[in-house]
Amino acid sequence: MGNSTGYKHTTDAKRRISRATKNQWLNSSFRKKMSRLVSEQNRKRWQDLAYRKKMSKQTSRVSKRNWENPGFRKLRSNSVEKQWKNPEYRKLMLTAIKKRCEGIEFKNSRRNILKNQWQDPIFRKKVSAGVSKAGVIRWGCLAYREKMARCALKMKCAHPNKFETRALAYLERIYSSRFSYCGDGSVLINGRSADAIDTKTRTVVLLNGVYWHLKKRGLVINNQNKRLRERIEAVPFLKAGYRVLFIWEDELNDITKRRNYDHSQEGVNICH
What domains does the chain contain, in order, with CATH numbers? Predict the structure, then answer.
């Protein structure tokens, strides 16, 4: 009996051991003692890098094998879904996650993991490809594009600039309270934002600065290039059934050059 290798307990012996173990675990002091012992042992083991790598590989292998089984996936998903329907469980888990994520040790660990991952060119390429693919899918959705455009315009164009302020005053003199500013993204038409809109007559106004609409695009400031940009920029609004009125910055500043170009389906030149 000195060497117990290969020794098999009888059924009665197994029952006695099971009862004795069960009775031990019913004792709170024994449970605390064993928990401390196990925790200390695990802590020491996990300080060993080789052990951590070994356990991570084993866990990954087992997890992968389990998730390849549709029955296991369904069982696990149902179990997690049932747990998260319990408000007390959700609150407990979210509190624990928040506490863990706010810890300095967790933040440093996560930062180091990400840093090491991004030093791997294969990982960078894989993530970049995934992000690019996801981005293409998202930008294919008009609702997503409009949401992002609203956010950007709300930050950058919450209020009209100097040129837009003068142009809005000019519109007010001519059309008397018909147009309201919408360059902050409050109104989007086919994913595009106008600078002012009259909803009753379905007319939008685009206030074009010569730098952003001509010079920045390498175009000379002349009427030909202006009409070219107008025909391109008017398309999304015309498709939605709107008339488009263009006011150019240099023409508004010089009353002798003032001329507005009103795009309907045919295109009409108007002067005020």
Answer: 13-101 (no CATH), 157-270 (3.40.960.10)
